[in-house]
Amino acid sequence: MTIIKIKNNSVLCVDDEELILRKIKRKLEDEELEIFLATSANEALNIIEREDIAVFVVDLNMPEINGIELLKLINHKNPDIINIIFSVYSSNNIKLSTLYLGNVYHYISKELVNKKNGYKIEFIPVIKRAVERYNLIQENKSLRNKLGLDL
């Protein structure tokens, strides 16, 4: 049950593998989310410039700019975006190092998601909670602003 009103339900997914992006879109199309897909860092940055994105899902291993560098660029421009790493890398060291970057909400393993019902169990609930979190943060900022409290 969502307590807050969802005003921004936009999710940007970035992966250099188009097949994975098509699968993500198919899995999320019934979830009342506005989905944007990008196959490169430049494409993702262009979408971020044009759209108000709530949740950013990125693969770590990409050509040109890797997922970590892209996260840094996105966070610099839009620090409120909720970031999720979606990667095939599953070592605990890699998971911990990405989470310690700061502003990474969750790490989802592609291996786990590709198992039976993985999207239902892991991917979709995390995306929905991230959208709720983003909207809660924005609502909190708005209320604090109305009350004249410093952010």
Task: Please outline the helices and strands.
Layout: E1 10-14, H1 18-28, E2 34-38, H2 41-50, E3 55-58, H3 67-77, E4 82-87, H4 92-99, E5 104-109, H5 110-113, H6 118-147
Parallel strand pairs: 1-2, 1-3, 3-4, 4-5
How does this model look, in words?
With about 150 residues, the chain is α/β, with parallel strands linked by helices. The protein has a single domain (about 10-145), classed as Rossmann fold, CATH 3.40.50.2300. About 50% of the residues lie in helices and about 15% in strands. The chain contains six helices and five strands. The protein has helices at about 20-30, 40-50, 65-75, 90-100, 110-115, 120-145; strands spanning about 10-15, 35-40, 55-60, 80-85, 105-110. Strands 2-1-3-4-5 form a five-stranded parallel β-sheet, sandwiched between helices. Helix 3 links the parallel strand 3 and strand 4. The chain starts with 9 loop residues before the first strand and ends with a helix. The model has no long low-confidence stretch (mean pLDDT about 85).
Tag the structure with descriptive keywords.
151 residues; alpha/beta; Rossmann fold; 5-stranded parallel beta sheet; 6 helices; 5 strands; globular
